[in-house]
Write the structure tokens for this entry.
Amino acid sequence: MVERYISSEEASNIIGVNVSTIKRWADRGKLDCLVTVGGHRKFLMRHLASFLKENSKYRSKLNVFPYKSSEQRQLNQLILKRHLPELREILLSKSIDGNREICQHIMNGLYLAGLRLDEIYDDILVPVLSSIGEKWTKGDLAIYEEHVATKVIQGCIHGMYALLNKPKNSIGLALCIGLKEELHEIPLFITEQILLNRGFDVINLGPNTPLERIETLFNEARPDRLYISITFVKDPASAECDLVKLFALANSYNTLVFLGGRGFGSVRLPDNVSYTFLASFNELAEK
């Protein structure tokens, strides 16, 4: 993923202080930055996120939008005041319109303003995705509109990686996997982000993963945790066979197993196995 550099002027606008203050903080190491060969300070969004996390008093002046239209000023206030119902409706509307920029600014702004990743996903993104699906099911959205909206949301989720500051000390290795014929990748990306933010190293195999030679990965990586996501089950017997194999491997390597997704309501789990079912991203962040 290519990350966009932020100038001192942009950083000052976002945090709400003058440019000289930004430069002074950077020179003193209070605000991380990159320095070009020519001596110019360049910031990444994660530098600003880390600073605001450690210096929350500056969140009151946060300005997440690069322009100053009346609409954007209003959105900025909704973000600072955490008016989530209104922001959900705006995110839904803008995603259907294909406005990735506004949607990304809303998500970035909520994170910079202090909402945790699991709160953003549970309280904003999941309801918006559900609304998109419901509107399409009822015929209120054409299939192309559903695709546009979903792709915008998916792109915004990818954009959140740029804000993450993974702790320096790893607390373990997590393996994330979607079974064969599981085509939903959004839950796996969100799971990866939350785990990275907690301090885990993550191997995300993505959706629709065949298990041929998966034993080699377990033997070489020896994951501490296994996260299995199932949203839709086309062939319950095949999914159950894969689950038997994964639970056996997890047992052999003392790997903790975590399950998530409504698809688990369509399969039978192996007998006498230990696992934790996660019903929300908040539970993922806490367990």
